[in-house]
Specification:
With about 375 residues, the protein is α/β, with parallel strands linked by helices. It has 13 helices and ten strands. Strands 3-2-1-4-5-6-7-10-8-9 form a ten-stranded mixed beta sheet, with helices on both faces. Bound molecules: guanosine-5'-triphosphate and magnesium ion (MG).
Length: about 375
Amino acid sequence: MKLVLIGIGDCGCNLAAEFVRLSAKAKAESGVEILVRSYAINDDQNKLNALRKVGDKLLTIAMPEPATSRRESEVGADLMRANGDRIIATMRAGEFFETNAFMLVASSAGRIGSGGISILARKLKDRYVNKPLYALVVLPLAAENNVPTYIYNTALCLKSIDKTADATFLFDNEKVRSEASVTSAADNDALNREIVTPFYDFLRASERVDPKYLGTSHVGIGDIVQSLSGWSAIGYGTAQLSNAGFSLFKKGENFENKSEETVKAMEAMSAALSHFSIECRLEDARKALYLLCVPAKHANIGMTRSVGNHLRELTNDGEVHGGDFYGVKDYASVTLIASKLTYIEKIKNYYERASDLAPELKNKETQSL
Ligand SMILES: Nc1nc2c(ncn2[C@@H]2O[C@H](COP(=O)(O)OP(=O)(O)OP(=O)(O)O)[C@@H](O)[C@H]2O)c(=O)[nH]1
Ligand SMILES: [Mg+2]
């Protein structure tokens, strides 16, 4: 699947750059393009200049700085209302034809990205009616959760992107950081690598890869588009394939070998299940997608079927799509997407906290007028 990626604000721009690194890896390792272009849109010219070194796959677009010191995301929304058409006009629309979907990325807590993402999404959807549009929204760290404007901006951002995007991937910055043991809160690069990594396999596996990498059931772009809807979480896990298992396997394709490989696939699946990008219950997912990656020599139909069946059980017979891909070495990996989630505790909490906060923020706003 080929994306046009659009990052807005600091967090969005850093992730737009990280996706470029991911696409260079896909090109080097599998010979496919997963990114048509990446755009970084920000009001901070210095930060945009710093991203230039990423290469020409990333184009930077400057926005004027807001004329107010207010921290609410409406400021970012107004800025995008005023500048969105000009921003879209500077994009290379000719390339959109070879694009399978847009992916807009921002943090929910700030102003520029949080307020701008839904406005730009709406403008793109109105122009490119048939092109799927996905969002990736990064939620604040635990330490930021006592900042009233961050809570307010997050709730507003979630409410409006849910109405606009075809599907929204949610990333809980705190969960991703603690599970990846990123110790420094300032280490955004490490955090961003964790955020983009789960997208790697399914984006490249759905492209026209070398037939030697094709598994028994291919995950195509149609499967992805059908699987993505509404609130979505993504999880990724790996399991090292032992050399012992490999040599056993070489001796003959007996039952024990196959079952050992299947155990590894299930181990990778467990890892994916415990590393979802946000806390959610699979039974609340109306749709789900899985991708099992193994080296061809370790593959068997049973392992793909086991992953798919287990996911079907967990989703309570939700609509499940999935398949396998042989483009990895030495390990098994499983990517899981839980989509069309009907309940996410964190979202409920943000909405509740924001409605308690709203009068307080409104008062502050009128006082500052
Ligand atoms: N994962 C991740 N989170 C980030 C990154 N940069 C900032 N954040 C988070 O994003 C939120 C702040 O939003 P920013 O993206 O800096 O805000 P903005 O869109 O530039 O808008 P302004 O508030 O006007 O600067 C906080 O929750 C940060 O923890 C990043 O590179 N990676
Ligand atoms: Mg900023």
